[in-house]
Amino acid sequence: MQLTGTLSDTTRARSSFEGDAAVGRTFVAKFGRMRDGGSYLNCSVYHDRYQRTSGGWRCTERVYEVKYLDATPLTGSASHATPGSMHES
């Protein structure tokens, strides 16, 4: 799969700590466009484990769990801004 670009929105990070260890979850929505014109949308969760070290907190494990995946091709075309149509406030 060769991508022309992706857009990710990472939200609602949650962490819990116990001594020098912690776990965290981060919810992600990701959109991608492939070079062949295909696209995808997925909603996923990063499940992370952290360990406190002398150099600070370090991620020791990351599991990527896809909750929703849609690879249905998009229809239509992208809109393009007309020169001069954007005004600064």
Structural notes for this entry:
The protein is an all-beta fold. A hairpin with a 2-residue loop joins strand 1 and strand 2. The N and C termini lie far apart (41 Å). The protein has a four-stranded antiparallel β-sheet, with no helix packed on it. The protein is built from no helices and four strands.
- The global form is elongated
| Mean pLDDT over all positions | 82
Structural class: mainly beta
Radius of gyration: 19 Å
Q: Care to count the β-strands?
A: 4
Major β-sheet, in short? Answer: 4 strands, antiparallel
Features:
mainly beta
Explain the layout of strands and helices:
Blueprint: E1 3-18, E2 21-34, E3 39-53, E4 56-70
Antiparallel strand pairs: 1-2, 2-3, 3-4
Brief digest:
This protein has no helices and 4 strands. The protein has strands at 3-18, 21-34, 39-53, 56-70.
